[in-house]
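Q: Two folds, back to back.
A: First:
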Amino acid sequence: MTTEESGIKRRKFLQVLGAAGVGSMVGTANGPTVADAAAMQVGTRPFGRTGIQVPILSLGTMFDTGANQLLLRQAVKWGVTYWDTAQYYNRWGSEPGLGKYLAKYPEDRKKIFLVSKSTNRDAAGLTAELNDSLNNLKTDYLDLFFIHAVDDARAELTPEIKAWGEKMKSRGKIRLFGFSTHSNMAKSLAHAATLGWIDGIMTTYNYKVMTTDEMQRAIDACHKAGIGLTAMKTQASSSWVYMGVESDASRSLAKRFMDKGVTKEQANLLAVWTDERIAAICSQMNTMTILKANTEAAVNQARLTAAERRCFEAEARATAANYCAGCTAICQSQLAAAVPVGKIMRCLMYARSYGDHFRAQVEFRDIPAAVRDRLGTLDYAAAEHQCPQNMPIGRLMAEALAELS
């Protein structure tokens, strides 16, 4: 990277992180500073032009919600009432657990912005899965329904999908319709902004990917189109650094925030909340400790200093080769066989960064055996050469095969 290119990227990063002013929020590691824990209440932002206000913190529920009813109850008390689920989360246990809660506390249903999703791409499959979700959740409507894991919006958001969404809205089964995306996010967001019928999008968005010109243009196009935006994967966890192993830049960034009583995880949320075009952050909060820490981050306000913004930029630059930015259309197009590089990277992330080896293995084994068997035999040189992050793709595919089979 030239000195001039580095300067441009640095200026763009500071512009994004410094743009929000009053939207800069962070909690302290020692607890709330503006209210005690019992009185905490998460604030809201407009969800695009839908007329709906949503909490800036969303509860990701890829865990055993049936066994965590007290956590759900506390989330409601703290205003964390944007709940994100899917029929296959926690291997089909998340929705029934939420349904168990709503059956016990039906008065809370109107407080909750309830979201589920489907991997189907045809009307019949979407209808079947939506009906199953409504049954599991003990509700007769969803506030938002996503087509899940879109990586080519131009090809996947068909007229059939549009007609289906409008039909379900007219029947009162869903209020809003949209999609989630983990890969090739900017291109999918940019196309969605031109359609006129997408209400909401959940996208990977964190301090490592949020400052590219392409992503900023896409986010801005969606914002101007009135699409409600939810950020996920906000912790920017590496897909290939083993759990507990950090770079010097990462340790330096973590220490800077810990010295002022803020955890690195809370600071990562802050970096995204500074962008007021983002309505909410979805975070998997499967323990009361995580829920409390993230709620504190949402409730308490402190400015992100220029020095702290520079530290984020330095860490993102220093660790670029350790993080998959989701631009899988680039690397996958260079391979002799169809390999879901992005999905495999997420599996490694679940195992190494989240410590969730079971989930990583289950999702890895969902990949057809014929594809998995070829991972160790393909030539990845061209894909690695084209990767903007300079990732060691071949080594990581071989490691995934060895660790997750």
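A: Second:
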Amino acid sequence: MNEIQSIPRSASVVIIGGGIQGLALAYFLSELGETDVVVLDAGYWQGGASGRNGTLIRGAFSSEEWTRFFAHSAELWFGLSKRLGENVMYSRRGYVMVAEKPGTGELLRQTRKLHERCGIDSRLLSAGELRAVLPAVAHERVNSSLLLPGSGVAPHHAAMHAFHAACQRRGVKIFYRTPVKEIERHNGHVTAVQTGQVRIKAGVVVIAAGAQSPTVAEMAGVHLEGYAMRLEAMALEPTRPLITPAVALLDRLCYMHQTARGEVVGGAEVAERPQATLNADIPVMAATAQAYLDMFPQLADARILRQWGGMVHISPDFGPMLGAHPGLGGLFVTAGWCYGHAGAPAAGELLAKLIVKGTLDSRIESFAVDRFARQCPVVEPGIVLSHFD
């Protein structure tokens, strides 16, 4: 059957974007009994940021809002394979936040106090404990380090396959290479989505289109704050095991982990203007290589195997935008993600509850779409990204 002919002419929920955010939401909607769901994606399978990320799962940050949300997501990751009936290959190997500067060390100490108040398992490592956890790091450069035992990594290809397979078993209809051309509305409410050849009548429309989310919002006649930004990563040739937990080098805006194949995968951010391109960026590669060389000297002779970039939609405070759009009834948003892989299970579960049951969970309330108009940004000092002013 021709794919165009197989697209239904109506759906309770149409999700625009078939990355991990869109698929996670579709799955959790199906868990709540909403299986009349259509997912549309303009690109190819794993062609967006969901196929181009660093795969790290970080379960706590330095603000209460980010910590409460991502701690919940990390817990969902831990049981996700059983829940989906598919192996997401999640490895709870821990995550170490490393500070080199005294000011950043103080941030980690304050972060630990916040985690204690939030009931999060984290601990500041002594010099001896750090040697046991990260023996290969340049210990003389480290001012302070914080271990998050409940965090880890999950390969994006496995997670995407698991969500996709689970959605299909539950009757969710997923279409790639199917761009949306128009979002119809009447009397302040969404009514349909037009793909160009098929009109889908919809009660609810969700924008989960990654870097294209603001453009999709314009189709609905509403605005989404933020801009498109490129994030980059690279992989080194396989080496013997050196790095067990995932690592964030906060002062270098660098993140990394070592795969089961022995490849060190990660990236660093540099202060640059947002760029809408996937071309390799030498300054970013150089910054990543310098961070590896300084902090893990045993990687000095390792060669770079590959480098890649991915586009994301960055909100003004770098936090996600989750919930109903106040400008149009029936329109919901999951956008603004720079940690979208890590946050997908929590975003999917909590947004699904809002759509189906009308229940607004406090863990996404702070990330409301209209928080910038209300002058209520969420300040998170512990992210590993470069701010652009």
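Q: And?
A: The domain at 92-150+228-314 is CATH 3.30.9.10 (D-Amino Acid Oxidase; Chain A, domain 2).
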